[in-house]
Amino acid sequence: MKNTNSMNRRNFLKNSAMGVVGAGVLGQAPLLNAEDKTVKTPATAVAPEKIKAYRTLGRTDFKVSDIATGGNPNPAVLKAVLEAGVNYIDTAESYGNGESEKTTGSVIKDFNRKSLFITSKLNLQKGSSKENILERTHKCLERLQTDYIDCMMIHGPQTSEEVKTEGFHEAMKQLKSEGKIRWVGISNHGATYGPVAEPMEKVLLAAAADGRFDVMLLVYNFIQQESGERVLNACADKNIGCTLMKTKPVEKYLIMKEMVEERAKKEGKEIAEETKKLLDGFKERADMAAEFMKKNNITDPREIRDAAIRFVLKNPKVHTVCINFRNFDDIDPFIKLSGSPMTAGDEKKLTLYREGCGSFYCRHACGVCESRCPHGVPVNTVMRYNHYFEFQGREKEAMGKYAALPTPKAGLCETCAGFCQAACPYNVQIHGLLSHAHRNLTLA
After folding, report:
1. Among 40, 49, 116, 421, who pairs with 431 as Cys (CB 3.0-4.6 Å)?
2. Where in the chain is the domain with CATH 3.20.20.100?
3. Mean pLDDT, residues 173-197 taken together
């Protein structure tokens, strides 16, 4: 029998989030249609947007669309994206426990396989053997229904030592000789399942120095630039292809206050004193940001989102940007950014947003504050799971991953003094965000 209270609470979370964005300081347009995961048919007969720019993916010499697709939640949406000219597909064995690869496989059979560049990823366990990697790669090929994978990546290695895992490299050498793998890559956005062991920059620079990696997937955006730029420079020196994720750090910064206060009202509960303190601090900062945005005439978050993508694409060392297309409504707005030059207006908007609202973005792959947590809460990982929950429509997966964490959970944050927040060099309200993430991921 289903838990009615939990189901109602989950529906409320989604509806409340939409209300906050629709009526709050971010203006009337919902940000990225974040909670709308239904597949919608195009509303008009206007000609669909098409990819206008392709870039050479480093030493692979493959011409990839500057806008790529990742996640692939629905076959009809993926097919439409490929018909629009997108030819780079990012997936992984762990995405939806293989469902993403299955979706991809069901769609690509209707396209010229040689026109597509497909990347998948494998998480490594300690001492992963060649035999284990070979077996899992063959399962990836089966799910993808293809004879070869263009690039197989190590998925989010925790340390620079993992980059050298010989079982993986031996397997890749054999698979290359058999024509089942063409290129080898690596992805990283900080910790995969717990505290950050080594930062993204250190891991990926080690991979560049190793010399056996042809493609990388990394975090780089207009707020979080420095570490990504150092990796991009190292890749350019070695002619390594560079693909990006987490390029749109535009968050719904009122969502925590509204959701917690409304939830308490709906359930007839008093808000705990500790939670009130967190909300007060969060509200003060949100009010300041709202005033800042109003003063600078930033009314539509989609303008910032689009400028953010144009920002990363203006860098010639970037070859493609992975977008999670959730529904038909996502397709044209993102595809039209292909080949779109950045303007002086874009620069101004991003500068203003970075100055006024940058403190609402918990930097991916950062982890600076984690060592200050007396409980050992894996901040980077918790925030990433909440990102899946709120912005990628992967609630069930995010909750499952969070429940499986072997480390202490963020429920401890409500009664903590906030050592993480004091240590954050970017002044992020991370203490309150962690508490909010715990409530999302447990439906507490």
Report:
1. 421
2. 54-249+306-335
3. 83
Residue 187: beta bridge partners?
155, 217
**pLDDT, tens digit, 9 for 90 and up, residues 205-227:** 999 999 999 999 999 999 888 88
Do the Cβ atoms of 60 and 324 come closer than 8 Å? no
* CB within 8 Å of 234: residues ≥ 6 apart: 204, 205, 208, 209, 240
The CATH code for residues 54-249+306-335 is 3.20.20.100
